[in-house]
Write a structure and sequence with these properties.
By secondary structure, the chain is an alpha+beta fold. It contains 10 helices and 4 strands; from the N terminus they run H-H-H-H-H-H-H-H-H-E-E-E-H-E. It has 2 domains: 107 residues, no CATH class; 65 residues, Nonspecific Lipid-transfer Protein, Chain A, CATH 3.30.1050. The longest helix has 21 residues. 37% of the residues are buried.
């Protein structure tokens, strides 16, 4: 898909996440996410960085951490999680954010970024995902055919991935079955809740430590 086709999908996912979070009781913003050490608040603060920091401001802070993006992400997530929920929800609706794309990742990267971090929030909260079936299918294609899984050290060689809730599959070999949400989380190195992936190779899928950023 072209950038002109992908950008509206990115914007729609941010708006859908904003709608969901705006309706949540504020206490649920303190619930743990799938990102280790981050609550819902920290994930939202991380997602919305581009709406608050232009390139100069971001690079100035990045230099303070010797260009270690993980350390900077943790610092900003911790600090900006203290912002009012109304401010963070407003950031999710910001046109600047809707047109942001990670360096070298384009709108494919931006779509993966918002979809996976959205799942980091909705899965532990027990809320439905914000992304429509077609959108998460695009993300799954990018993580498999596009090779995005390799960034997270996920090995899918000799495996057949089969979604149980949408019409999507990939590869051949021993099947790994689960919802589109859980397959996407698995491909991004997330710790999928036990029993949610059916693995015919082992006695049961064993989750992994969650990675903060689908980058």
């Amino acid at each position: 898909m072209t950038d002109d086709e992908l950008q509206p999908l990115v914007a729609a996912d941010y708006v859908a996440l904003a709608d969901l979070l705006d309706a949540l009781p504020r206490a649920r913003w303190h619930a743990p996410s799938l990102c280790e050490g981050w609550r819902v608040r920290e994930v939202v603060a991380h997602l919305t960085m581009p709406s608050r920091y232009d390139e100069d401001a971001f690079m100035a802070e990045l230099r303070e951490f010797d260009f270690d993006f993980t350390l900077l992400s943790n610092r900003i997530a911790s600090r900006d999680a203290q912002l009012p929920t109304e401010k963070l929800v407003g950031n999710l609706r910001d046109e600047v954010l809707h047109h942001w794309a990670p360096p070298g990742g384009g709108y494919h990267g931006a779509l993966t970024h918002v979809v996976i971090h959205g799942l980091d929030i909705t899965v532990p909260l027990g809320e439905p995902r914000c992304s429509p079936d077609a959108t998460i299918g695009i993300v799954l294609d990018g993580l498999t055919e596009g090779g995005g899984h390799a960034h997270f050290g996920t090995d899918i060689s000799g495996r057949s991935l089969q979604a149980t809730d949408i019409d999507w599959s990939y590869g051949s070999g021993a099947p790994l079955r689960g919802t589109a949400d859980d397959l996407a989380l698995h491909l991004c190195g997330r710790n999928v809740p036990p029993g949610r992936l059916e693995d015919d190779v082992s006695t049961g899928y064993q989750g992994r430590s969650a990675a903060p950023d689908p980058g």
